[in-house]
Amino acid sequence: MKETVTNGQRAETLIHALPYIQRYRGKTVVVKYGGNAMINEELKNAVIQDVILMNCVGIRTVLVHGGGPEIEALLKKTGKESRFVQGLRYTDEETMEVVQMVLCGKVNKDITALIEAAGGKAIGLCGIDGAMLKARRLKTADGEDLGLVGEIEEVDISTLNTVLDSGAIPVLSSVAFGIGDDAGRALNVNADTAAAKVAAAVKAEKLILMTDVRGILRDVQNPDSLIKTAARAELETLKKTGIVSKGMIPKVECCTTALDGGVKKAHIIDGRLPHALLIELFTDEGIGTMIE
Questions:
Q1: Which residues pair with 137 in a beta bridge?
Q2: What distance lies between CA 146 and its chain's CA centroid?
Q3: What percent of the chain has pLDDT above 90?
Q4: Residue 203 Ramachandran class (φ > 0 left, ψ -120 to 50 alpha, else beta)
Q5: What whole-number distance in Å separates Cα of residue 81 and Cα of residue 74?
Q6: What is the pLDDT of residue 2?
Q7: pLDDT in tens, 258-285
Q8: Which residues, 6+ apart, have CB-to-CB distance to 201 below 8 Å?
Q9: Residue 193 near residue 135 (C-beta atoms within 8 A)
Q10: β-strand partners of 123
Q11: What is the spatial distance between Cα 31 and Cα 110, in angstroms, rounded to a whole number?
């Protein structure tokens, strides 16, 4: 039987959120949108509603997205075999065309259209627009070539600020503008890293990474072992002891990049939970792991 929520309870919920709305009004929050929340329709709609509400109460919201599953699907359709080097997608010319087509085209415009259809105002962008994300080719630690994969060296926030000042939500895909030997070429950059670099550049109040796990777990086999808060200084110890391992390492490194760049707090949250963004921002308990 569906539980009935009274008007009084609705009012209490809004009053509970008021101090948080006042705290974050006029501040910038960068959200990395990815994982299951980009695929599941219910979760997708919840994220769109969350970012529109955040924008409506005066939070300057930047939405940075990836699109790995969509890229993989189109590569398969074209008969292109994916190749990975130390967990990173090797990006040749043909793959880069697909990446640019999917991220800057379909995925970016689909998200922008969903926000507009739900009553929000959004501007779809990629890192090439205004040379917003400038990058050089990235190689692995032992010097292996990754093709047209970039490492962001500079973020030009002028275009982002223009969009934010207009009251719209920038929706940013993680394709960068090449510099140096690759001047003017499109380079594929990691979306988590792009979000962290953007957050640092705009001096965001928060960076929020939406993932498919609850956050940092003391025991990966125990979902109830969530570490709710961690200090920046603790992160190296968490890595050395193996608590932060495998796929969580790059997430934590992105949080470190953001915090070292002046971002106040970084969050790793479970994007599989509907309205995860609102729960993190506007409740005492929050969800996921907060690093400061």
A1: 150
A2: 22
A3: 76
A4: left
A5: 11
A6: 57
A7: 999 999 999 999 999 999 999 999 998 8
A8: 155, 157, 261
A9: no
A10: 170
A11: 17
**Angle CA(203)–CA(205)–CA(209) in degrees, nearest 5?**
100
pLDDT surpassing 70 at residue 3: no
Residue whose C-alpha is closest to residue 135's, from 178, 182, 192, 91: 178
Please give the average per-residue pLDDT across 195-219, as a whole number.
95
Residue 67: CB atoms within 10 A of its CB come to: 24
Is residue 259 within 8 A of residue 266, CB to CB? The reply is: yes
Backbone angles phi, psi at 228, to 5 degrees: -75, -35
Spatial CB neighbours of 155, under 8 Å, sequence gap ≥ 6: 132, 133, 134, 197, 198, 200, 201
Cα 84 to chain centroid distance, Å, stands at 22
Closest C-alpha among 176, 244, 171, 163 to residue 211: 244
For the stretch 98-140, pLDDT in tens is 999 999 999 999 999 999 999 999 999 999 999 999 999 988 7
Q: How far apart are the C-alpha atoms of 123 and 24, rounded to whole Å?
A: 22
SS3 per residue for the chain: CCCCCCHHHHHHHHHHHHHHHHHHCCCEEEEEECHHHHCCHHHHHHHHHHHHHHHHCCCEEEEEECCHHHHHHHHHHCCCCCCEECCEECECHHHHHHHHHHHHHHHHHHHHHHHHHCCCCEEEEECCHHHCEEEEEEECCCCCEEEEEEEEEEECCHHHHHHHHCCCEEEEECEEEECHHHCCCEEECCHHHHHHHHHHHCCCCEEEEEECCCCCECCCCCCCCECCEECHHHHHHHHHCCCCCCCHHHHHHHHHHHHHCCCCEEEEEECCCCCHHHHHHHCCCCCCEEEC
Structure tokens at 102: 């999917």
On whether the pTM is more than 0.90, the answer is yes
Hey, what are 139's tokens?
A: 């190689």
Tokens of 147: 């093709």
Residue 187: closest CA among 139, 235, 116: 139
